[in-house]
Design a protein that fits this description.
The chain is of the alpha/beta class. It contains 17 helices and 27 strands.
C-alpha cells in the first residue's frame, strides 16, 4: 500500500508534491526547506555558511573567495522558498540576474522593485533566486570596473561543490548552493544595465556562453562591441546595428513578423533566436511575459573541458569553469507541469518494499513520474504510450537527470512517460545493492504499466548515465524481457555480466547501445590516448555475447580503429547540435537488426548533456517486444 499521495482526480495531479525528510525510508532530500529570504550580498556573506552547514556532510562552508572584494551592498538576492540546494539538485535552481542602474535608498525599496517586475512570483513558481545588481559606483553608473564584479559573481554562482582554503583551512564554497547554480541562468538588463551587458558581458565568450537567455530593455551598444557566441535575446528599443550583431551571432537569418514583434531565427537551431519588440510595453507586463514565453525555452549545459577557454582568469579551472556552454532546447516545469502537458508527480510508496537490502532494510520508496496529460485524463488509448525507466547518476538527483539530460523535451515532443527512482543510498557498487536493484528496477517499470493502462508494456526502455549506467545494466541483467531496449551511458565501470547474467540472456535478446566521450572518466577512456580502456572494450564484447553476435577480437586494434579498437557493420559520424562530432558503430544480427551499438562524442566531458536523450530516443524508438513470445520487434522506418 502507499504511504502517502492520493492522486484523486486526474487533473488534480498537475502540481508537484514535496515531502519532508521523515517520510522517506531512504532519507531522500534535495531541497533546503527554507523560507523566502531577501538580503544584500553583504548579509548573504554573513548568513549563508551557517544556514547551509547542516547540509554539508563534512567540512566547513565559507563564501567563495572570488567574492572577497565584491561591493556587497550594491547587490540584492531574493531566494524562493524551499530552494534546491544539495548535490546536483543545485542545478535545478533557476537564476535570474537583473542589472539595473537604479539606486535604492533601502533594502525594502529594492525588494519592491523586483516585486513590481513580477520576479519574486516567478521565482516562487520554479525555485531559485533573483539577483538584483546595481552599479558599484551609483554616480558613474555601470563601467568597466563592474565587469570584474560580474566575473566574481558568475564564478561564485557556478562553482557547485567547489573547494578552497580560508585562513589556511580547507573550506567548501557556499554561494552556489545558497543562491546559485547553472544551466537555467538568465540575464535581464534595464537601461544602463542593458548597455553594460551589451558592452561588457556578451563580447566575452566565457560570459555570454553561460547565459541561457537575455532580456535587454533600452540598451545601447558601442560600434566596436561584439557578441561572442549564440545567445537567445529579446530586445526592446535596440537600434539596427545591435540587432544585426545578435542576429549574426545566432545565425538568425529568417524572420517572422507579428503585431508585436519581429523574430529572427536560425532555421537549423531554432533556440538561437532574436526577438525585437515593435512597441514598448510596461516592464511589469513585459518581464513575466518574456520569462515564460521566451527565456525558459533554452538551457545551458556544461559539456566542454574545464578551463579550455578561460585561460589566465583568477579562478581558472574551478568547478564547471568552461566555455562555451552547450545551448539546447528546454521544456520547463512550472508548478509541476510543462506547457506541452508533461506532469511531474512525486510518489512515496512501499510497493517495492519486498526488494530490499537485507543488511539495512532499505528499498526504493521514492520516485518521480512524468506523465503526459493524455495519460492522466484518460484520453490516451490503452497501451499507446512508451515508458522510460530513467536512472540517475552518483550524487545526482532523479529530477535533475530527467531535466538535465533533455528527457522532458523528448517526453513533450514524442509523448512518452518517464519514471525516475531515487536509489542513491542503496549502492549499486555493492553485491547486495546490485542484487536488490536487479529486481527492483524492472519491478518499478512493470508497476507503472499496471498503474497506468495507457502505458505500453511492449515499449519499456531503460537509460542511465555514469552510476545510472550501472543501474541500467542491473535492470537489463535482472529482467531483459521487461525492456525493448537499453542505453547505458558513460559507466562501464564494474558492470561486466556474470555467468548467471549470460544464462538469463539465453532465451532473451535485448538491443543495447552504450556510449562514452573523449574526456570521460579515466575508467572508461584513457586520459592520454583517448581510446577506450580495456575494461570498456571488454564490456562491448560482452554485450555482443549476450545477444549472440559474432565475438570481437580478444585485443583491441587502435592503430586500425582509433577510439574504440573495433569496427562494426555500420559505422558513421554526425555533428550534434552544431557542437560535438558523434561517432557511432552498430552490430547487426543475422536478420540485419542492430542489436549492439556504441557512441563516442569528440570533445565532451563526463557530464549530463541535453542532446544525449535525443541520441538515446533515436535508438529506442525502433524497438518493441512481443509480449507473448518475448521476441524483439524492429521497425527501421520509425521517424
Amino acid at each position: 500500500m502507499k504511504k502517502t499521495l492520493s492522486l484523486g482526480l486526474a487533473l488534480a495531479m498537475l502540481l508537484t508534491t514535496c515531502f519532508a525528510q521523515s517520510a522517506f525510508a531512504l532519507n531522500y532530500k534535495a531541497t533546503l526547506e527554507n523560507e523566502a529570504t531577501f538580503e544584500t550580498y553583504t548579509e548573504v556573506r554573513e548568513n549563508a555558511p551557517a544556514a547551509m552547514q547542516p547540509f554539508l556532510s563534512r567540512g566547513v562552508y565559507a563564501p567563495h573567495a572570488a567574492m572577497d572584494n565584491y561591493p556587497g551592498d550594491t547587490t540584492y538576492i531574493y531566494r524562493s522558498p524551499d530552494m534546491f540546494g544539495i548535490d546536483a539538485a543545485v542545478r535545478l535552481n533557476t537564476n535570474i540576474v537583473v542589472y539595473s542602474d537604479k539606486s535604492f535608498a533601502s533594502k525594502d525599496e529594492a525588494k519592491a522593485y523586483i516585486e513590481s517586475l513580477g520576479l519574486t512570483a516567478i521565482a516562487d513558481s520554479f525555485r531559485g533566486s533573483v539577483i538584483l545588481v546595481t552599479p558599484s559606483d551609483p554616480e558613474t553608473g555601470f563601467t568597466a570596473a563592474d565587469q570584474k564584479n560580474y566575473y566574481a559573481l558568475q564564478t561564485a554562482m557556478f562553482a557547485i561543490n567547489a573547494a578552497g582554503t580560508k585562513d589556511g583551512e580547507p573550506v567548501t564554497y557556499v554561494d552556489a548552493s545558497y543562491y546559485g547554480g547553472y544551466g537555467f541562468y538568465y540575464l535581464i538588463g534595464i537601461d544602463g544595465g542593458a548597455t553594460f551587458i551589451n558592452n561588457y558581458v556578451v563580447g566575452t565568450l566565457d560570459y555570454v556562453s553561460r547565459i541561457a537567455g537575455l532580456l535587454l530593455v533600452n540598451g545601447d551598444m558601442e560600434r566596436i562591441s561584439t557578441v561572442a557566441a549564440p545567445v537567445p535575446v529579446y530586445l526592446v528599443n535596440a537600434d539596427d546595428a545591435t540587432i544585426a550583431k545578435y542576429c549574426e551571432a545566432n545565425g538568425a537569418k529568417a524572420n517572422e513578423i507579428t503585431k508585436d514583434t519581429v523574430t529572427y531565427y536560425n532555421q537549423f537551431y531554432p533556440v538561437r533566436k532574436v526577438v525585437v519588440a515593435k512597441e514598448e510595453v510596461p516592464l511589469e507586463e513585459l518581464v513575466p511575459s518574456v520569462y515564460y514565453n521566451f527565456l525558459i525555452k533554452a538551457y545551458r549545459a556544461q559539456q566542454l573541458k574545464s578551463g579550455l577557454n578561460s585561460a589566465s582568469t583568477p579562478f581558472q579551472g574551478y568547478t564547471n569553469d568552461c566555455a562555451p556552454y552547450s545551448l539546447s532546447k528546454r521544456n520547463a516545469l512550472i508548478n509541476g507541469r510543462t506547457v506541452d502537458g508533461i506532469n511531474e508527480i512525486a510518489v512515496v510508496s512501499d510497493e517495492l518494499s519486498e526488494y530490499k537490502n537485507e543488511s539495512s532494510g532499505e528499498y526504493i520508496d521514492t520516485w518521480w513520474e512524468y506523465l503526459p496529460d493524455e495519460v492522466l485524463d484518460g484520453t490516451a488509448a490503452p497501451g499507446s504510450i512508451p515508458l522510460l525507466l530513467s536512472i540517475h547518476g552518483g550524487g545526482d538527483d532523479p529530477r535533475q537527470y530527467v531535466d538535465g539530460q533533455g528527457w522532458l523535451v523528448v517526453a513533450g515532443e514524442e509523448r512518452i512517460a518517464i519514471v525516475a527512482p531515487d536509489y542513491a543510498s542503496m549502492s549499486n557498487f555493492s553485491d547486495e545493492g546490485r542484487a536488490t536493484l536487479m529486481k527492483a528496477f524492472p519491478a518499478l517499470a512493470r508497476l507503472m504499466c499496471e498503474k497506468y493502462p495507457a502505458l505500453d508494456a511492449s515499449r519499456i526502455y531503460v537509460n542511465g548515465y555514469s552510476m545510472g549506467a550501472l543501474g541500467t545494466n542491473q535492470a537489463m541483467y535482472g529482467d531483459p524481457k521487461c525492456f525493448a531496449a537499453a542505453f547505458p551511458m558513460a559507466g562501464a565501470m564494474n558492470v561486466a555480466p556474470r555467468e548467471e547474467d549470460f544464462v538469463t540472456f539465453e532465451d532473451a535478446d535485448l538491443p543495447i547501445c552504450a556510449s562514452t566521450s573523449e574526456y570521460d572518466l579515466y575508467v572508461n577512456v584513457d586520459t592520454v590516448t583517448h581510446n577506450l580502456v580495456p575494461g570498456f572494450y571488454s564490456y562491448v564484447a560482452d554485450l555482443m555475447k549476450l545477444n549472440g553476435l559474432k565475438e570481437l577480437p580478444e585485443e583491441p586494434d587502435f592503430e586500425a580503429y582509433p577510439m574504440t579498437g573495433f569496427t562494426a557493420d555500420i559505422v558513421g559520424t554526425k555533428v550534434i547540435n552544431d557542437e560535438y562530432t558523434d561517432h557511432y558503430w552498430f552490430f547487426l544480427n543475422d536478420d540485419g537488426v542492430p542489436m549492439v551499438g556504441f557512441h563516442y562524442l569528440d570533445g565532451a566531458v563526463h557530464n549530463l548533456y541535453p542532446e544525449y536523450s535525443r541520441i538515446a530516443w533515436d535508438f529506442f524508438k525502433h524497438y518493441s517486444r512481443d509480449l507473448e513470445t518475448g521476441a524483439v520487434i524492429y521497425n527501421a522506418n520509425v521517424r
